[in-house]
Amino acid sequence: MPDIDFIRTELERMRNQVARQRKEILQLQRAGIPTASAETLLQRMLDKVDSLCAQREKLKAEIDVQIKGRRRQK
Fold first, then answer.
1. Do residues 20 and 27 touch, judged by C-beta distance below 8 A?
2. Tens-digit pLDDT profile for residues 31-41
3. What span, in angstroms and rounded, lies between the C-alpha atoms of 58 and 65?
4. How far apart are CA 71 and CA 59, in angstroms?
5. Based on C-alpha coordinates, what's the Rg of the chain?
6. Exposed, middle or buried by CB within 10 Å (0-12, 13-18, 19+), for 15?
7. Residue 52 gets which letter from DSSP?
8. Burial class (CB in 10 A: 0-12, 13-18, 19+), 7
9. Percentage above 70 pLDDT, the chain
């Protein structure tokens, strides 16, 4: 399972890609070129970001539980 730092880095990378994809879609729209496939790709990218966010939240919760367990042992 990837660690939380990897997930955070991947999220940042994916968010940058999403921003580039949105700009590209706008350029295509201005040029009058159909954007259906680009919008489908954007949706898949957004789904991936959502998945990574869920993984990050799960890992954060696990880390919080571990930290609280250590505090109780002291």
1. no
2. 999 999 999 99
3. 11
4. 19
5. 18
6. middle
7. H
8. buried
9. 93
